[in-house]
Amino acid sequence: MRVNEKAPAKLNLSLDTPMRYFDGSPRWDMVMTSADLADYVTVETHRRPTTIKVYTDSGFLPNDQRNLAYQAAHILKSRFHCREGVTIHIRKNIPVAAGLGGGSSDAAAVLRALNRIWRLDLSLDELAKIALTIDSDVPYCVYSRLAHVTGHGEKIELLPAQPHYWAVIAKQQISVSTPQILRQINYEQLEHLDNERLIASLKAQDWQEAVKYMGNVLEPVTMSFYPEIKQLKDKMVSLGADVAQMSGTGPTVFAVCHTESRAKRIQNSISGFCRDVHVVTLL
Ligand code: ATP
């Protein structure tokens, strides 16, 4: 049987970390949403061979157990003793290692697809629990809609959908190592966000108020290595974005705009010095 799943990019409307756990991993406090920039994942099962195979159209990605989509298939296969083989084809549109959760979203898409193919009847909440064993963004990506995400990434409160908004997503030719950025966090120096007010504004569907409380406390950490990220962000603001900020640990910066024409104008103005630029709607 074969199933197609869309794997949307995630964006951090806010990213904060109030503390580290004893094992050194960050406790997250984030508001996340997804964009209509997506990878396309096709999952097929067969009786022979019984192995997992991953194919992508990207020359840079691993096809073995290092691929998060492979890990998702492996976990469901072993946990539910499914003997069938799994073939996964991923058409990548989400830039890799960009702070857009592409790998996590591919993994979540595989979980949703195999849940249907193998008729496991797991709820999204149950899939999200399994997803946490893959990576911290995978539970959110199981839902891929506006949510408040805390803990290691496993506590997810879904928030109401918002009015139609556009975003310009821009990734410079920089590779950011998430573990390296997380190791550099000095918790004493972080300027924490008011996520409670952000969430209250979103619950009231007051997007104009919400943009005032968006932010990413890791920007100074990543920007200390890559000052060009700040230049891009400042340019987007000067071009009229409602807000511009980094997603995840970067390097991607996104600008939120309340009209498509404004988003297109920003896209045109920055595409001269940043090649990977997309205008998207927020889900
Ligand atoms: P994170 O913030 O979780 O590190 P990211 O959003 O910055 O992730 P991804 O595109 O998910 O970036 O890639 C992060 C790493 O995961 C890359 O080093 C990549 O090799 C690896 N990876 C494994 N599987 C995938 C996949 N299916 N798609 C993209 N990257 C993958």
Automatic annotation (TrEMBL):
Domain GHMP kinase C-terminal: 199-274
Active site: residue positions: 10, 137
GHMP kinase N-terminal domain segment(s): 67-144
An example molecular function term from Gene Ontology annotations: ATP binding
Cross-referenced InterPro entries: GHMP_kinase_C_dom, GHMP_kinase_C_sf, GHMP_kinase_N_dom, IspE, Ribosomal_Su5_D2-typ_SF, Ribsml_uS5_D2-typ_fold_subgr
Enzyme Commission (EC) number: 2.7.1.148
Cytoplasm keyword on record: no
Catalytically driven reaction(s): 4-CDP-2-C-methyl-D-erythritol + ATP = 4-CDP-2-C-methyl-D-erythritol 2-phosphate + ADP + H(+)
Keyword Chaperone annotated: no
Pathway in which the depicted protein is active: Isoprenoid biosynthesis; isopentenyl diphosphate biosynthesis via DXP pathway; isopentenyl diphosphate from 1-deoxy-D-xylulose 5-phosphate: step 3/6
GO biological process: isopentenyl diphosphate biosynthetic process, methylerythritol 4-phosphate pathway; terpenoid biosynthetic process
Residues that hold ATP according to the record: 95-105
Family annotation (Pfam families): GHMP_kinases_C, GHMP_kinases_N
Assigned keywords, A-Z: ATP-binding, Isoprene biosynthesis, Kinase, Nucleotide-binding, Transferase
Family under the similarity heading: Belongs to the GHMP kinase family. IspE subfamily.
Role, per record: Catalyzes the phosphorylation of the position 2 hydroxy group of 4-diphosphocytidyl-2C-methyl-D-erythritol.
Protein's UniProt name: 4-diphosphocytidyl-2-C-methyl-D-erythritol kinase
Organism of provenance: Limosilactobacillus oris PB013-T2-3
